[in-house]
Structure formats: C-alpha cells, structure tokens
Amino acid sequence: MPDRFAASDAPALPLHLIETGSLDTWLQGQDARVRAWVTASGFTGALNTALMVPGADGTPEAALAGYGTAGQRARQRFALAGALPGLAPGTYHIASGLPSDAATTEALGWLLAGYQFTRYSAGTAVQKTLVAPDGVDAARIEVLAAAEALTRDLVNTPASDMGPEALEAAARDLANTHGASIEVITGEALLEQNFPMIHAVGRAAEQAPRLIDMRWGDTGPMLTLVGKGVCFDTGGLNLKPSASMGIMKKDMGGAANTLGLAQAIMALGLPVRLRLLIPAVENSVAGNSFRPGDILTSRKGLTVEINNTDAEGRLVLADALAYADEETPDLMISMATLTGAARVAVGPDLAPFYTDAEDFAAALSQAAPGAADPVWRMPFHDPYEPMIEPGIADLDNAPAGGFAGSITAALFLRRFTGQAARYAHFDIYSWQPKPEPGRSKGGLMQGPRAILGALPQVLEL
Predict the structure, then answer these.
(1) What's the CATH number for 13-136?
(2) Structurally, what CATH architecture does the domain formed by 143-459 represent?
(3) Quick one: CA torsion of 315, 320, 322, 324, rounded to 10 degrees?
(4) Do the bridges between strand 431-432 and strand 331-336 make them parallel or antiparallel, or are there none, so unpaired?
(5) What is d(CA 188, CA 248) in angstroms, rounded to the nearest whole number?
(6) Structural domain boundaries in the chain
(7) CA distances for 99 relative to 44, 111, 265, angstroms
(8) Would you state the pLDDT for residue 1?
(9) What amino acid positions are annotated as catalytic residues?
C-alpha cells in the first residue's frame, strides 16, 4: 500500500478537480489544443471519471479528475479516490479545484485507495502517488493510512495463517516496533489466573486460547482498548450454516481495529497510558467444546447460562473487560464484530457504539464526519436488562426472541464494567462487502479515526 505521500519536491503532473458544470469555466483558461482534446473526449467532470491531457509530444502534461456535484460527493466517502482508476501511473499534485475543508479527507482517500492485499498473490505494481495538498497534516494522514493497512491485512488473512498464535505474533511485532511491553496468558494458565470464559470458548481449538496484554506510555490518562480476537467462528456446537461461516475469518475484526488504533496512538505519540487487551481464541467443534446449557462462572463472579455457543464473543470480552476494569481506566473501549443485529440495524457502513459517557458520545459525533469514519450512537436501554437475566444464572448469553440483539449484547458487556470512568462499546462489521473508492472489498477499519479525533477533548490531551 502506498501509504505515504510523494516528496513535496518530486516531479509531479498537475491534477485539476473539475466539478460537474464547471468544465467550461476551466477550459476558458486553456489553449486551443487542450480545449479541443477535452471537448472531444466527452469528459464532463462526472464523479469517478478522469482524463489524461497530453502535451505536444504526446506524453501527459496534466490530468483532470471528475469531482461531480455536492450531492454526489455526499453519497461517496472519498470522491477523489473514484478518479484514480482513470489516471495513469505517476506522481500528481492537486493544482486546482480541491476545497480546503475536503483536503484532509481526499488526501486520506487517495492513500487508502492504493491498498492491496498481496500476501497470496503478486498484485499489481502500479503506483499513483500524490504530493500532500497544502494545509494538511501529511504525517498524521500517513499514520492513519498505515493503521488502516494493518487492520485490513489482519482481517483479510485467513484463519489458516491468522489463528491465536499469529494474532499474538502481530501484537508482539507492534509492541517491538513502538517499545511497548507485552504479556500473554495461554492455555491452562487462563484457568489458573481466573479467565474461565476465555478458556471455555477456545479450549476445543488446536491453538490454545490466550489473553494478550500490551502496555505503552508512562504518563497521562489511562486508555484501555479491548478487542474481540475470535480468529475463526464456526459457531461451536450451535454450528453456523456454510453461508454464514464464509467470512468468519473477520471475526477477529475487533482485535484488528484495536491493534490499528493502538498503532496510530503510539505513532502519533499521544500522551496517554495505553493498554490493549485481546482475548484470542478459535470457536471450534470438538469433544471438549463448551455446550448449550452449560453455566460458566466469569472472572467477575457472575454466572452465565450458555443458550447459544455462537454468542461466544461476548464471553471472551467479558473476562477481558472485567480484568481491564480492575485498573479503573479513564476511558475503556471494546470493539467487536459482535452481532448480526447491528448490521440489520445500520448496515455495513456505520459503526454503532454504546456509551453512558455523554462527553465521549458528543466528541465522537463531532469528530466522525471530519475523520470520514461514520459512527452512530445506540442506546444502553435499561428496560431491556431483564432480557439478559435467565433466572437459572445471573446472565444469559443469547436471549430468546430475536429482539434488540445488538443492544442486549451491549448490556451484557456493560455488566462486566463499572469501575472505569467511561466505557464505550463498538459493534462493528469490519468488512467492506463490495469495492468502493478508497475501500477495497474485504477487511475494513471502522471507528478508530473517529475515536482518535475524540480523544483530545475527552481526555484533555
């Protein structure tokens, strides 16, 4: 992924962004040769189109990118990225037509559009690089693009190469890069150190379950991230149908997003004490799989009746959240590809979040548009609490009835918090179902850019 901008002094072709309806005005300032070429091409400035403009010797001397209308741009997150397929390989600088309030988003979209997942195929070596537009924080945008590349790579890697061991290795690589410390509790040690639900969910897999615990920073407010690391989810004994199992390599998307967010926080040098916890497991089928009807006792002491082994993500998160909560962080965030109900509610593009912290909710909503990272607040609706109380145990991991599935899952997780000054849960999809400009089909970062934008206000950085 070309997640860096070209040097500011690099030879670069001028790129003009042309809105629909403004082409004639731009052409008035051009010579007859350029006017004739552009007119003959049929280029109109429509969104997702581009035109190379040749010089007298036939080699490109400039390029035009269709910028559509304001209404069209509102329906596409990265408008400029849609023109990249029509541009020739090379280096460009934006010469005209870019609104200053869109420069950061469009520059980020350009970098994200260059992402390729090449672990199993050579990909293409075509490079279309951009000189960072004037007035943008190029270094920050590069950090965000690199964080997304890490997240996408982790999610896109199949479980054959991204099991709990490989997820641990990825966390160790990140820790080594940024001078963070890391500890991992594995296998039977989870029982010895009181993480019974992480152990129960992962014990049937060939690779042992584990809890990854990374720390970075010595001063500032404490920020704790907890990411669901279910590296593959068969559904357990409540086996998923094949159609639902097809993309379950992405069920560690919460872990991938928290790793990407942690990378960005460390690369930007934010003045926080960062902690990242990832319960890494595979939900597999074997003779020692946990069963429907089992009752598990969590780290916090709350008992949980298992009414569906396919509702395993909340179980591993619960033990990790209880552990994180013991340190009373200033802000604790969990991220997980937790429920299909969230996708029914808001679709694949929005990242729903739950929080009782009004300052964090307001800061997120304010930061998200500028970060090109849409989020949507969902309610911790207290009247639904009885739905997660089965009677035979303290909690039910899969309430019957099918109503409010994302909300009841969030309420379940909230039961394992209470000491943290603020808690927020993100029920993300972490997957792009079809390619869009700046967003290739496959793994996706959802929420971290909005979170990064909100942190300075909430934690007074």
Answers:
(1) 3.40.220.10
(2) 3-Layer(aba) Sandwich (3.40)
(3) -160
(4) unpaired
(5) 26
(6) 13-136, 143-459
(7) 19, 18, 28
(8) 43
(9) 240, 314
